[in-house]
Description:
- This protein has helices at residues 2-6, 20-36, 66-74, 92-100, 116-132, 157-168, 217-231, 241-251, 259-268, 274-289, 292-295, 298-301, 319-327, 330-343, 350-378, 383-421, 423-440; strands spanning 38-43, 55-59, 80-85, 103-106, 136-139, 176-184, 193-198, 202-203, 208-209, 214-215.
- By secondary structure, the chain is α/β, with parallel strands linked by helices.
- Strands 1, 2, 3, 4, 5, 6, 7 and 8 form an 8-stranded mixed sheet that branches. Strands 9-10 form a two-stranded antiparallel sheet.
- Helix 4 (92-100) links the parallel strand 3 and strand 4.
- It is globular, with a radius of gyration of 24 Å.
- Mean pLDDT is 93; it is low at 1-5.
Amino acid sequence: MADSAKKKPFHEPPIQSRHWAYDLAVQLVRSAVTRFHRIQGIDGIEHITDAKTPTIVVANHQNGLMDPLVLVSLINNSQVHWLTRADIFYKKITRTILFAFNQMPIFRQRDRISDARERNTRIFEICAERLRIGGRMGLFPEGNHRAMKSLRPLRRGVSDMVNASIKLDPNMRQLQILPVGIDYEEMPNFRRRLRYRIGEPIKVDALINPKTNEVDPGNLLTPLSAAMDQILVNIQPEAAYDILLPYVQAMRTSECEDWASTKETLNRFQSLDEPAITSIQEALKTAESAGVLEKARAEDLGMSHESLRDVPGWLWLLAPFAVVGGLGSFPLAKWIESKARQRVKDPCFVSTFKATTGMVLFPIYWILISLPTAFFTVGSITLSAVLGSYLFHLLGSRIAGWWYGYYLDSVGRRKAAQVWNDQIMRQSWKSYLSAVDEAIAPLK
Length: 444
């Protein structure tokens, strides 16, 4: 098996900045992302570099293949290129599709390829070529995904790409690294909130060692890690992650407008000592025993009774329009939901499955149901009738999804209100919040 692995061919990606297939697919991707998630805000959008500046976009990696889709939706002024595990490039049809979508193979130690280092060197050279002619690279410097709101140590792939670029062309000293923080309210589920935070670009030129004309990995990864930490929900220490997570969820980080204050609170967790952690743990156990987090989500409970989300007065007035608009799409949506439960065990890939499956199937499904809809509406299947029906389902499902997000807030408010109105649950949840507040108060 090892010998056969060593002989696997190396299919070199083309040097390209754009591909027409990407231009077509990205429209579906943006539609899928904005339909599935509720985009709550984009902070720091002014930091996105212009299309002429060679840029490597880096982000935290929590949510499987959804993360690159989310980043592709954010970057509008150039195509984003990605490194993907090499073992999926061996079949020709798959490779052709991946190359069309600007994917390139990266070889890992587990691939057991004897010349993996040499192959990766060539891949980084191609990345540098693509950066030089106007492409943008997208990287997740943590190396792999993990469904936790925390930042892991960064790997040196980004510095290798930077150095390959500088070696290729001295003008690539103008290369910049753009940090993006992705903040999901609840990753797997439809119409939960998503917020982007974009940090100031890191200019590579200032980090180049004049003796070697390269960037030392540590000199890049240290400021990059600090820059990412500033825009992320980074719950530390990880040993206390599970007991701090409900508090952070109650902070509603994806909704907050005062990020500086929120980040200051998050940073105080890092100095918690063992007695404080124990106190918080016991308070959380009491709240869980009272059934608080079974009754309501921490995001809906918030930090006080007064922080219950407002429900717009027009919610139920618009309900009939949402029902009519989304009724035709409902069967396929439920089918995708059921298939996700059956097939996807890793929570990091639930939203990926739902969004990508819907992205492919819904346009086909709307065409199919538009045929009988057109016939029963006008008595014949004409192009104008089918097109009108298709547009109705396209726009109606969008309106229904928009309304459904507010409906979820209404349901969440009702459940959270039941907790706040129950004396035992209210007191146990307030005690948990107070335990965290008291633990971080001396650190102010």
